[in-house]
Design goal:
This protein is mainly beta. The protein contains one helix and 22 strands.
């Protein structure tokens, strides 16, 4: 049996060794899934009933990982909404349906407020707060498109806004469906200025190495049936480092670059 002095010496040595050991490294921060790039628009109009955006998809994507190119997130009346393109649109009964169109609003689960296209479907859920949406399969690719959200008709409960997409390459326009937005008193709900366009990887990627290379651009954002072009635009980024946004003044296009090999060379802030 060791003496008390020997035991005390061993304890002191062990404590010294532990104090000299490096601290455990913190768990690596998981950056994905996440939003990626953001552009916020100012039209100089407080409200309008039609929004249009011209985009170019410079290189096509596969279905996975799930990528979202969202055209305008903002408010219609007092209700938030967003709409755009996804690589793998979810069907509540069938799962992922591949590339398609998505348009959602919050503050309801009532599908009486949704009118999908004949070949589309609806969704009602609560995992992002109560929301409803219309969905439609649509095989978008590396083409130039116009997407528009416009007031269609009105009833005693509110105004219906429809989502359309025009493929400039094929000169074909498709309709995704419409969603009703409630009135505030007797006031017709209108799209509010200051909304944004953004990109997101929403599923199928947990590591930056899985981030696909993607180049997309916005040639113009318009209000009031293309009568008013955005007067100002502001760029912002998430914590994901492999993204870049810049404004090409000669062409008037805003470019977004995404991918593990992308180096950010432009700061956030005013684009024009």
């Amino acid at each position: 049996m060791r003496s008390s002095a020997a035991r005390i010496a061993l304890v002191l040595i062990a404590a010294l060794v532990l104090s000299m050991a490096p601290a455990a490294a913190p768990a690596a921060q998981r950056l994905l899934p996440s939003g990626l790039t953001y552009v916020w628009w100012k039209f100089g109009l407080p409200e309008f009933d039609d929004f249009q955006i011209d985009i170019t998809i410079h290189n096509d994507l596969e279905t996975r990982p799930g990528m979202y190119f969202q055209m305008y997130q903002g408010q219609i009346g007092d209700v938030g909404f967003y709409f755009g393109l996804q690589t793998d649109v979810f069907h509540p009964k069938e799962g992922g349906k591949g590339k398609g169109l998505i348009f959602s609003r919050w503050k309801t689960r009532d599908l009486a407020d949704a009118r999908p296209a004949p070949d589309g479907w609806t969704q009602s859920a609560g995992y992002e707060g109560d929301f409803i949406g219309i969905r439609k399969a649509y095989k978008w690719t590396n083409h130039r498109y116009r997407l528009r959200l416009t007031a269609l008709d009105e009833d005693e409960k509110g105004a219906w806004y429809g989502f359309f997409i025009l493929d400039y390459d094929t000169k074909t326009e498709d309709y995704a469906g419409a969603i009703r937005f409630p009135k505030t008193g007797d006031k017709r709900p209108l799209i509010k200025d200051g909304g944004g366009t953004w990109t997101e990887v929403y599923s199928g990627a947990t590591d930056l190495a899985q981030l696909p290379a993607w180049h997309i651009s916005i040639e113009g954002a318009y209000a009031d049936r293309r009568k008013v072009k955005a007067k100002e635009a502001f760029a912002d980024y998430s914590k994901v480092p492999n993204t870049d946004i810049y404004f090409d003044k000669p062409t008037g296009a805003v470019h977004m670059l995404i991918g593990r090999d992308v180096a950010r060379t432009h700061p956030k802030g005013k684009l024009f």
